[in-house]
Design a protein that fits this description.
Strand content: 15-25%
Number of strands: 20
CATH topology of the largest domain: Alkaline Phosphatase, subunit A
Helix content: 25-40%
Shape: globular
CATH class of the largest domain: Alpha Beta
CATH architecture of the largest domain: 3-Layer(aba) Sandwich
Number of helices: 13
Largest sheet: 11 strands, mixed
Oligomer: single chain
Bound molecules: calcium ion
Mean pLDDT: 93
CATH superfamily of the largest domain: Alkaline Phosphatase, subunit A
Length: 475
Amino acid sequence: MRTHKEQAGRTQSWVFLVMTLLVAMSTGAAADQANQNAGRPNIVLIMADDMGYEALSVNGSESCKSPNLDKLASQGVRFTNCFANPLCTPSRAKIMTGQYNVRNYIRFGMLDRGQTTFAHQLKAAGYKTCIAGKWQLGKETDSPHHFGFEQSCLWQHTRSGRSKESGKTFDRRFVNPLLEFNGVEKDYVGGEYGPQVCTDFICDFIDKNQEDSFLVYYPMILTHCPFDPTPDSSDWDPKRLGSTTYKGDRNDPQRHFRDMVAYADRAVGQIVAQLEKSGVRDNTLLIFTGDNGTDKPIVTAWNGRKVAGAKGTMTDAGTRVPLIANWPAGIKNNGRVVDDLVEFCDIMPTLCEATGATLPPNYPGDGSSILPVLLDNSSARQKDWIYIWYRGQVIVRNRNYSLLAKTNGRDAALTRYKGAFDGERIADTALSEQERTIKKQFETTLAQLAKARLTGVSKETRTKIQKPKKNRKQK
Ligand SMILES: [Ca+2]
């Protein structure tokens, strides 16, 4: 018969064994998590506001200088054929959901609450998520959080971001900004600069989350009008409350735009420095782009020519945007310049593939990940054309041709491109046989996609959008 002492000794041994196993298991799990974090990259996605392709010196600008972005390009991959939509909200809906606007765009300044974003997908994969910059996608206090961002510092979240003083309306995005932190309003009056507050917020987030995998989405406030001084401009006045006009109060928008591009570039440099300081630079995939073409009246000296800003139009100057990807530990053969076609719905599949996050169920497959291009294996990627649905018009294009038409397919016209910003519309009677074939193929693509209108929103939303407006005269 066992004595109590023996029994106690056996129990103690068993408890020790179980404890040892539990410790080993938890250490293993922690190690697995650490390995997983070490393998998958952090994501920093930066999207300037109203900064076309031609605005960066690395892309050929002779007016502006962007040394930090130029350096990222020289140590990463620079894309020469990336297309956004012609305006803010359409581009934002497309980049965040990975879908063509024909499926899920409802109206300006709003993202349908039923949409799934890349932030949802990366958060579900264990990423810490944050957004800073311009929101303009729904005024609900929980709006950024609802769309997957755990931390936010935004302009135009719960309010217009403008204030009325002595009968005048001031744009409060730049000097002395009106911002919201996680939905809580904060009004600056000490000479702060809105874009700088956002960049500092991001750097703080990176520092706090350096041990975890993180997603930073930075839809910048720069370089949208008003074309006003930055803290680096000779006429910076920290006591101003911002512009009282939409485009800017001063008389030299070209100079202010140059200063604004320089400041946006400086913000990128600050974020890169923070990644280095936090020890996460190597395994961070940084992507820089712009949400649409440059605005009027900005004219850029570019590769020996002048490019006039044409935001809001279905032209090269309205839709061609910068795209630079940099990821020291991931990209193969750095310093490449590639002409692969990229459109905004490609970003979500890219972020999911790079991080191991899943795509949402029922994802319609509009986007094509650019990861194979980053890994110098472009042949593994399929993207023969890009498509834009915008304000009653649609366009499909490849590197050399585009077809622009009304959404009902009427007035379809083919444009031939010699290069960037160098398109020439061709009359139907002047089309070669090959061009007639291209036009037909493009027309088929447009007709197929036209059927997808509002297939990406709930039946309830669809009914609401399609309801005929009262008092509208029937034709
Ligand atoms: Ca914009």
